[in-house]
Amino acid sequence: MKIAVISTNESHLQDLGRLLALNRHNVVLSSGEKTKIRSVAEQDAPDLMLVDGMSCELADLALVEYVTTHHPATAVVLLCSEQTPEFLIHAMRVGVREVLPSPATPEAIEAAVNRVAAKLQGSSQRQTGKLLAFIGCKGGSGSTFIATNLGYHLAESRSVLLIDLNLQFGDALSFVYEAPPTLTLADVARDINRLDASFLAATAVKVAPNYSVLAAPEALTQAMAIKPEHVEAIIKLALLNFDFVLLDLPRILDTLALKALDRADKIYPVLQAGVPGIQNAKKLLTVFRSLGYPDTKAEMIVNRFEKGGDIGFSEIEQSLSGAIVRTVPNSYKEVNSSINQGRALLESSRSNAVSKSLAELSATLIPPTEDARGFLGRIFNTRG
Ligand SMILES: Nc1ncnc2c1ncn2[C@@H]1O[C@H](COP(=O)(O)OP(=O)(O)OP(=O)(O)O)[C@@H](O)[C@H]1O
Ligand SMILES: [Mg+2]
Known about the structure:
This protein is an alpha/beta fold. It has 18 helices and 13 strands. The chain has helices at 10-22, 37-44, 61-70, 85-93, 106-125, 143-154, 172-176, 185-190, 197-203, 220-223, 228-241, 255-263, 275-290, 313-319, 332-341, 345-348, 353-365, 370-383; strands at residues 2-7, 26-31, 48-54, 75-80, 98-101, 130-136, 160-164, 205-208, 211-214, 244-249, 266-272, 299-305, 324-329. Residues 370-384 have low confidence and may be disordered. The protein binds adenosine-5'-triphosphate and magnesium ion. The site of magnesium ion has 3 residues, from helix 6.
């Protein structure tokens, strides 16, 4: 584990350093005041930060809260020479993992470090889910419709969370749910140091037994308080708790979107078969290539595609040379009626051509189960 130790007391610093190095930790020692907490968290990104010599003053906890809020992956343990019950309560509230006496015995330090390590190992051993990012090449291409409805298909056999990252004008929830959300991404961001699996589950709206949506904030002003670090922490946790995490992204390549695209296993740019959409799709592909993404990372979805239209499939494929291109057919009446009712299309019409095409897309993401392989294998053998 990477552990950063901060102390004004040189002998405490060296003692802690020796003890942790003996236990094979990667240790970074910083001699100095607790005001260093923030810079150490930003520069070293440790798994654990041991801060020695904290006073019992509540004001000091503001420094700690900055780290627990902006760097949720860093656990903070404080070493204090005196501890009042009020200080302990506040420390826990701002997300401090433990408060130990200062100086602490080697046994107390080792036990606290082991507890943090066990938690870290527990989370890294869990299999992580797949992150799928959806981005419209042009406004109104159908990116939200495809993301929300594909989620419904995937949720027939897997657990799915969709996060609406159109922070200002997000409407994803309304495509698959008829009521407004009680809680949104803004509530998670506001209480980011409380973030854990149960808080995330309680904030997302359950739209089907295996499918939840974390809605965008209701008010425009709330969107501004959501920072890229919050979204990063939410995605990281979501991937530990869901088989698929779907992101409905806005058409702005800002820090938030780029981090999400980097982290994504698959990116689905959604376009329609028109010149403006194709031009924007090309621009996105150029960005993806310049970011070093392999060509298989993005799969272009030509939505509302109709055979015999002005621009044919092979023309689109040629324009987007090298990219994987899929199509979803046009079905204006049924798609619109499903959106207006706030119900997934699959619920009203499984036989609709759009539902079938989303089922095919979903199948590309879910490998056949062992059972299915056995079944096909048996048929194959019998016939052979
Ligand atoms: N396959 C389809 N067949 C027919 N109509 C569709 C289809 N997909 C989407 N639509 C229509 O396109 C409209 C826009 O879809 P959607 O809101 O998903 O696009 P978007 O790319 O998310 O737009 P925005 O830029 O506003 O985020 C929908 O309201 C629906 O009427
Ligand atoms: Mg949208």
